[in-house]
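Q: What does the assembly look like in three dimensions?
Context provided by user:
Components: two
Sequences:
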Amino acid sequence: MKTLWSLAAQSLWSRRLTSGLTVLSIALSVTLLLGIESVRTGARDSFSNTISGVDLIAGARGGSLQLLLYTVFRLGSATNNISYETYERWSNHPAVAWTIPYSLGDSHRGFRVVGTNGNFYKHFRYRRDRGIEFAEGRAPTGMFETALGAEVARSLGYTTGQKIAITHGLAGDLLQHDDKPFTVTGILARTATPVDRSLYVTLEGISAVHVDWESGAPPMPGDEVPAEQLEREGVKVEQITAFLVSAKRRIDALRLQRDINTDANEPMMAVIPGVALAEMWRTIGYGETALAVTAVFVLIAGLLGMIVALYTSLEERRREMAVLRAIGARPSSIILLLVAESALLTFAGVVAGLGLTYAALFLAQAPVEQAVGLTLTIGAPSQLAWIYVAAILAAGILVALLPAWKAYRNTLADGLSARL
Amino acid sequence: MTTAPPAIQMEQLRFAYKAGRDVLDIPSLHVPPREKVFLFGPSGSGKTTLLGVIAGVLEAQSGAVRVMGEDLRALSGARRDALRGARMGYIFQLFNLLPYLSVIDNITLPCRLHPARAARLNGASPDAAARDLATQLDIAALLHEPARELSVGQQQRVAAARALMGNPELVIADEPTSALDHDHRAQFLETLFQCCQRAGSTLLFVSHDRSLEPMFDRALSLPELQRRPA
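A: Here is the predicted structure of the complete assembly.
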């Protein structure tokens, strides 16, 4: 037994170029498979951790997916707003710990403007326990102050102190609230979530820019209420778009959801972000299946390459088999020898693949998080990864049975007479 | 010590690769122990097949084959493999060695494969026995060379050393000199004879080169051994 394993190892070493290439191709398949698995879990984690610690998202009645999209991902828009009184009523509900209001609908050069209050900076969490931090400056407190998401600041090159105008609506720069410029008071630290792609102002700020816009169109020149006057007199916040709810006790969330859904004053709806995100992930999860299928095919190609390498070497090794037979090797030892070779190749491939995967994860972690906001976790291989590894080793041994069987047949037919 | 059984004993042996087409049909063949036998015959006459039957790699369809007293037809394949591994030496015409092993690893391989072979070394380690044989065969300087870098003549000496490890009772050589030039041929045979003598081995030597015949105790013509068509 031991002799055969050492023979197998020496035989492989003597063909180290082809053996190396086979190991490399298996290693690459393993890396791809595990890498994709890591990206997949990373993507799912990042996705479902876009927002944390929130039990409900509430807004005007509509589609739950739509509500999730415009509150969490800043995509699409709300069809209706809800009144500020309703928000305040829910916000003071005894079962509610805190709420974060969102007032949406305006933009700045393609980035969404979010009207919110201090709770956002205080309570908002993503990736389980990370909160909002400032890279520079502070949260907006005044009516015409704004804080920028990291991506906004980076791509527009803004710094604190700069004055910017907000655009009415979400597209184009046509309808500018340029009579009421906002001063940048702070820039948020990077979160690698959609938070980075928005500008944050106070709820009053959103109301203020819409003061003269009751008709939906800009005021006639000269009719504008001057910004200074608004600041002096204050504005009343009439409505918001949606709000995030954290219940004091998690088990209250379901009852709160039902109560919000059946609010008698206003048609409203509430969704549980975890449930809605999981539902959404299932819808967009085709990508991950496609990735996994690709990886499996790459692996199959790697294993096929190994069979081909073993198979083509058989012809030139018939002589070697006859020599082994002549010194007393049993035909079954010939099978064992070839299976041992492919087991060693596969094992080396898997080990190299694991090494390569961790090296790649280690090198790619920071850049990937920077570039696409995906956190690749580096930890012990997941249970699924171990299953992959075991399956690859088993497949490596199984596929060797084919050439081994052929060699066995050759051996029996050739006896000691194999010619070259 | 009782008299050793004949090295090879065959009666009414028939062997065919395909049913009904006998390659071997030998009424009788006896080789006493320690004899040096020269077996010749034209190519295609079944020489290598006969060696396969004697080595226990091929199974005869009928008749009796006893090698070193063992009834091959009564033994399982594994037992025949073990018998060959432990008590026979086999030398091919060419390509005797595993190219990826060193010379010494090639020589000791049968001992590693079959502990019974190693047990025949009279207490010496396989490496020591290999060095001893290598000295006799004048290849001691090559022991740690990779087998693939040897000349044909050197390879045949290594093959002889391997075949002779543990003083096997029977050494089978299938045209081992046909790849060697004339001078090397005589020299190789000389050494092989000496080693077989020392080991007390029976030598069954196959060749079509009848010029070697006078050096042997006895010459057998395979066509003449075969039953003549009636």
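Follow-up: The longest helix of chain A spans residues 331-372.
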